[in-house]
Design brief:
The protein is of the alpha/beta class. It folds into three domains: 156 residues, Adenylosuccinate Synthetase, subunit A, domain 1 (Adenylosuccinate Synthetase, Chain A, domain 1); 93 residues, Adenylosuccinate Synthetase, subunit A, domain 2 (Orthogonal Bundle); 164 residues, Alpha-Beta Complex (Adenylosuccinate Synthetase, Chain A, domain 3), CATH 3.90.170.10. It has twelve helices and 20 strands. Strand 3 and strand 4 form a beta hairpin. The longest helix has 18 residues. The model has no long low-confidence stretch (mean pLDDT 93). Keywords: Cytoplasm, GTP-binding, Ligase, Magnesium, Metal-binding, Nucleotide-binding, Purine biosynthesis.
């Protein structure tokens, strides 16, 4: 029985919500291991839509334990608001179903303000973030001056930690012509939130190890996609954490031997939100048609997503950097009705053909896609639940993708409905 890590194998927004929800029904524990409330899952269960941006997807299923791991950066105010919203939808949230790592880093108001200022263009390169303070919070974590959840449980020691943090931030703010932050005000704000978040605090590394040894099924879910990984993504147009599958170990406190199966999620085409390179991006009617049919708008921000053909180069690369065992291919039905479908199989860089995405920012901006074309299909694949329900040409397309990325498609999604899924191999039973 394998514990499963789910990762996006493109730039995020691959349709992880439906797949994670399906897997979470079989899991005992669902762990969020990185990111903040800048990415989300949309779950539809029994006709009710739940939009999650921080809480693990298991939270909407009774009897599951949801865990926010140490690799996450936690905005306590956003957490309280999300809990309140879900409670209003009838979801019961208590310590019985939610635990948060005691060593998780907190996102503070000053992080949000700094993030927004940078994205305005007034202080550095515009990355296209959601302005929720995720990047600046990770900076403080790595700079060893962060406020962590456990610090709220020690009110006597908190002011000294905040003074150390503000020694950095107030100097930065003076350089940006911003007023300094009063330590007492920030301390009071955090201590006011403490009673609402501390009941969920736990030693998550020990909790998960106990459950693993007892045979519990653990599902690790990340946010964003592997091409937004701070090391392996399209730097600097990335998030500030490790989104590849290896981050599940460091972001939860479990060793890598606890991970058995890595499921990569990929759309049958490609999308991206925010700035940065996108070799197969389409600026024509086909790109607009894909976006409209796929309802390509961000779960958290509502921003329209950039759309393009499937890029086998980046998915093939992600299969390697995340050690992906099998691919869940989503939104195949969006390609119904196209006369022909293109797939990027290689790039051309400065006159030479290459089979990888280069690491350099300039090179990433210069690569040109090399396409191969396959005939499309006129019949509908929407709602298909077996291979026999699919148009023959759609099956050829799936097999072609498998060959190009060097990884099997073990699950195929043909609509947002969770039952409209073709299962080849259950990751938990691999």
């Amino acid at each position: 029985m394998a514990n499963v890590v789910v990762v996006g194998s493109q730039w995020g927004d691959e349709g992880k919500g439906k797949i994670v929800d399906w897997l979470s029904e079989q899991a005992d524990i669902v762990v969020r291991f990185q990111g903040g409330h800048n990415a989300g899952h949309t779950l539809v269960i029994d006709g009710t839509t739940y939009k999650l941006s921080l809480l693990p997807s298991g939270i909407v299923r009774p009897g599951k334990l949801s865990v926010i791991g140490n690799g996450v950066v936690l905005d306590p105010r956003a957490l309280v608001e999300e809990i309140t919203r879900l409670t209003g939808q009838g979801v019961t949230i208590s310590r019985d179903v939610l635990r948060i790592a005691d060593n998780v880093t907190l996102i503070l108001p000053l992080h949000r303000e700094l993030d927004a200022l940078r994205e305005s263009g007034a202080a550095g390169t515009r990355i296209g973030t959601t302005k929720r303070g995720i990047g600046p919070a990770y900076e403080d974590k790595v700079g060893r001056r962060a406020i962590r959840l456990m610090d709220l449980a020690e009110p006597a020691a908190l002011p000294a930690k905040i003074d150390r943090l503000l020694a950095h931030h107030n100097a930065l703010r003076r350089g940006l012509d911003l007023p300094p932050i009063a330590a007492a005000e920030l301390t009071d704000e955090l201590l006011a939130l403490a009673p609402q978040v501390l009941p969920y605090m736990d030693r998550v590394w020990a909790l998960l190890d106990d459950h693993r040894r007892a045979g519990s099924r653990i599902l690790f879910e990340g946010a964003q996609g592997a091409l937004l990984d701070v090391d392996h993504g399209t730097y600097p147009f990335v998030t500030s954490s490790n989104t590849v599958a290896g981050g599940a170990a460091t972001g939860s406190g479990l060793g890598p031997t606890a991970i058995g199966y890595v499921l990569g999620i990929a759309k049958a085409y490609t999308t991206r939100v925010g700035e940065g390179p996108f070799p197969t991006e389409l600026f024509d009617d086909i790109g607009r048609r894909i976006g409209e049919r796929g309802r390509e708008f961000g779960t958290v921000t509502g921003r329209p997503r950039r759309c393009g053909w499937f890029d086998a180069v980046i998915v093939r690369q992600t299969v390697k950097t995340s050690g992906i065992t099998g691919i869940a291919l989503t939104k195949l039905d969006i390609l119904d009705g196209f006369d022909e479908i293109k797939v990027c199989v290689r790039y051309r860089l400065d006159g030479q053909e290459i089979d990888y995405l280069p690491a350099g920012q300039g090179a990433q901006a210069r690569v040109e896609p090399i396409y191969e074309t396959i005939p499309g299909w006129s019949q509908s694949s929407a709602g298909a639940r077996s291979w026999a329900d699919l148009p023959a040409q759609a099956i050829k397309y799936v097999r072609w993708i498998e060959e190009l990325i060097g990884c099997p498609v073990t699950l195929l999604s043909t609509s947002p409905e969770r039952d409209d899924t073709i299962l080849v191999q259950n990751p938990f039973e691999a």
